[in-house]
């Protein structure tokens, strides 16, 4: 939560979470309150290089209350060891949609549909995206399926073409239905 967090910059690369925890607890808790309050910090995260596990020189500290955030901001420019700390409020990062628009503008309608569907699916369903799915309405014979590499394929067992209105079978079925209707109406008249 950016209202409860601060950004601490200009840290030593070998700094540890415990030293930051201790430094801010000592500075922010008033001497008369030290007996009652054990901790004002909820979380400390030093951003580290994944390969060397050395710190990158900055950390995010989350407090239990917004009052401690304002007190911590007053420590901006103060020294911790040999280094002068740079402390600011954590900012909520607003993602730039222009990059996404550029990516999607190159896609055709079929690919945009697939991408839109992928956003709605969970991680497990994303693996099956674009593969043959046999369930519910999507498995109706004759519908097209999105195959590998965005190729649209006709499903096996495609639906046959509809019969012509003047076909022999159609004429026979219509005659039979008319005969049944005539018999039903004659029975109703006799009653």
TrEMBL record:
Pfam families: RRM_1. Residues 4-92 form the RRM domain. InterPro entries: Nucleotide-bd_a/b_plait_sf, RBD_domain_sf, RRM_dom. Residues 153-162 have a biased composition (Basic residues). Its main location: nucleus. The keyword RNA-binding applies. One of its GO terms (cellular component) is nucleolus. PROSITE patterns: RRM. SUPFAM superfamilies: RNA-binding domain, RBD (SSF54928). It comes from the Eukaryota. GO terms for molecular function: rRNA binding. Keywords: Nucleus, RNA-binding. Residues 151-191 are annotated as: Disordered. Belongs to the RRM RBM34 family. This is Nucleolar protein 12. It comes from Pichia kudriavzevii (Yeast). The lineage of its organism: Eukaryota, Fungi, Dikarya, Ascomycota, Saccharomycotina.
